[in-house]
Amino acid sequence: MSQGSGGGRTPVTRIAEEQPGGAIGGEGRHTGLTAAEVAERVARGEVNDVPVRASRSVGEIIRGNVFTLFNAIMGVLFAVILVVGPLKDGLFGFVVLFNALIGIIQELRAKKTLDSLAVIGESRPTVRRDGQSHEVATGDIVLGDLIELGPGDKVVVDGVVTESDGLEIDESLLTGEADPVVKQPGDTVMSGSFVVAGGGAFTATKVGRQAYAAQLAEEASRFTLVNSELRNGIAKILKFCIALMIPASIGLVLSQLLVQRADTFEAIRRTVAGIVVMVPEGLVLITSVAFAIGVIRLGRKQCLVQELPAIEGLARVDVVCLDKTGTLTEGGMDVTDLRVLDAGSGEPYVRQVLAALGSSDPRPNASLAAIIDAYPADSAEGWRHGETLPFSSARKYSGAELTEPDGTRRTWLLGAPDVLLPPGHTQLGAVDELNTQGLRVLLLARADGPLEDVRASAAPEALTPAALVILEQRLRPEAPDTLRYFAEQGVDAKVISGDNAVSVGAVAGKLGLRGAESPVDARELPQDQQRMAEAVEDGAVFGRVSPQQKREMVGALQSKGHNVAMTGDGVNDVLALKDADIGVSMGSGSEATRAVAQIVLLNNSFATLPDVVAEGRRVIGNIERVANLFLTKTVYSVFLAFAVIATQVPYPFLPRHSTLLSALTIGTPAFFLALAPNKERARPYFVRRVLRLAIPFGILAGAATFGTYLLARAHYGATDATREAETTAATLTLFLIALWVLTIIARPLSWWRVGLIATMFTGFVLAISIPFTQDFFELQLVGTQMPLTAIGMAVAAGVIMEIAARIAPKKVPDLPKSVTEQQQEQDREKAGQTA
């Protein structure tokens, strides 16, 4: 085993037997492929050419917006109108075309945003070629490439370990086995695993679609519209619509042909009108547009949404688990003090030990990086390092065998004092005092015996404390406002960290987190999931949490019915990020965390999370409003169809009437409502919440409209000459009721919502007032008695709808209150009692 010099940064490695394309250079390490060998492999197609896309292709976007079931139905009906005429009854066909164009344009904009962000956030493995290390795109790796690994790096292709320096690989995402696997030269590594400690290099043996990464990378990075409560809810609504449409359409076709025997084309036109209005053709479009615009808005804030449902998912969470380092604090730290504990070791000697330790790790974590800045390698001239033990979150310390200039060889450890020292040690009191100030404290200790003995033991023994290294963490300036936002929105924030619990509590306290004054040491948490869930639910700050415990705590919260979001940037957060309902990674985080997270904050700003939550709430709340409008239309159209079938009368509307009503009361308003600001908290039972209003509203609208139509037929005489007046009376009633539904759905009313409703009303008035539009739509109010009756029927139905809108919410369970909301309620009660 070779030893690097104390002043160098070359890692100590074990090197496997030479592999093809991996000649060993003069520095005692493999040099990797040559440029000529890379070119040969590229020519043979031995490239990692798996397409990793962040969005659907242009062809998929066009097909997804054009070739839909409802577009097919509308296309057939439009073709029928082209045959029987007139063309003005085929306006709905142009509306469908316009809708498809809007959907395509918006999703192409979202694709452009996503693809540009994906390039920024794409992992770039380090490949050694011609003895030099280079970062390359994942797709540029070739068969036989020598790929370097360090903590947090993801294994992107399958291979065989060539060099190992305490290399530990976590394969839990592949095998489910939680314990890291120590890899020696000659061992295989699988794509999809990641490095938790140490470093090394491996030779790629499978690339492209032969590697396991071909499946993992595509699944992790694909822009998807599935596995979403909102999307699944809309799918159920569409099935409900189809179930109603089929029998109603068949019955309507038969009844109209039998009733209108003398004018078959007129019967066909009215049949088409009855079917067209049943189709909720704009619902899927509006949903896709709302999601696409959400992606664009978040993209402008440097937020990469790797899975689209994450936008709505984060809006539904009621617990957000935050990793302290890199989330609440910035990645960097500063050494503020050094307290020498061993009387036999002076401060200059301790500084040299720390400098030598820093130079022994080629990929230092944030703590060791701060020590390297304070005690650079050139201050340990003449020191050499041998065997090293890289830091891992599981053991909480690192170590190295250091040889001093005089040849003395000692084993040194650097890590958490409460892990390295036995309980009750005299130094732990001083450490606790420092922790209460929010400082991070590391213990430098000398171990008896070689490092291999320390590595083999579960807990180091026979240590001589040498010094306490005190570091100050840099708090993120935006963190207090973000935590305050979550508290105001009823979302419980829980800080879960591997650091000392008291120190974590002090940091959280500075940021104003409720419950920070009672930090919990995770080593004392119960093993039973039920009891753990209760403890985690009650606590707010947890320290000394192992990576596996983070995963268990997320699972415990989920077992209590919580929707959990997990944020993190380190390799120790990967398991919890994967299991959480929503995983959020910082852009500067490890490659592994970015791979499993649904949302990546490329700007590394914790303050972006409220924007994601707000965008999700906008999408969910607005789509619920829009779905109410579309489903109300389907219900009243089906009601009218069955009413017409039962009474054997002509269908009251032509396709042009349905197009006018849909445009003014549903299509145009829905587009604006879907894109409006909405800060309402997302609630469950999407389908039930929509149906509870749409069904009574639709039945009332259908009953009132058909009642007006029958009264008009009786009043005007029910002849071919009076049909226009009968239709106009029914149209007036249906428009006013639909406008009333829009008013209820749009609440709370703001100035622009009132303006939208007024504009739609003005549009209808113009349609029945201007001679040209009167002739085009065949709408003409005749006399005063029936128009007033039509208005009266609409008002009566509107009053009943107002009552229904107040009763319906009581029939659907409310979302359980979170711990934060309960605490806020108790605080208000206490404040009232005090007053």
UniProtKB/TrEMBL annotation:
Residues 1-29, 813-835 are annotated as: Disordered. It is found in: Cell membrane. It is a multi-pass membrane protein. It comes from the Bacteria. PROSITE patterns: ATPASE_E1_E2. Signal peptide: none annotated. Keywords: Membrane, Translocase, Transmembrane, Transmembrane helix. InterPro entries: ATPase_P-typ_cyto_dom_N (IPR023299), ATPase_P-typ_P_site (IPR018303), ATPase_P-typ_TM_dom_sf (IPR023298), ATPase_P-typ_transduc_dom_A_sf (IPR008250), ATPase_P-type_domA (IPR059000), HAD-like_sf (IPR036412), HAD_sf (IPR023214), P_typ_ATPase (IPR001757). The keyword Zinc does not apply. Residues 825-835 have a biased composition (Basic and acidic residues). Its main location: membrane. The chain crosses the membrane at residues 66-85, 91-108, 237-259, 271-296, 635-654, 660-678, 690-712, 727-745, 752-770, 790-808. Residues 125-219 form the P-type ATPase A domain. PANTHER family: CALCIUM-TRANSPORTING ATPASE. This is HAD-IC family P-type ATPase. It comes from Streptomyces cheonanensis. The lineage of its organism: Bacteria, Bacillati, Actinomycetota, Actinomycetes, Kitasatosporales.
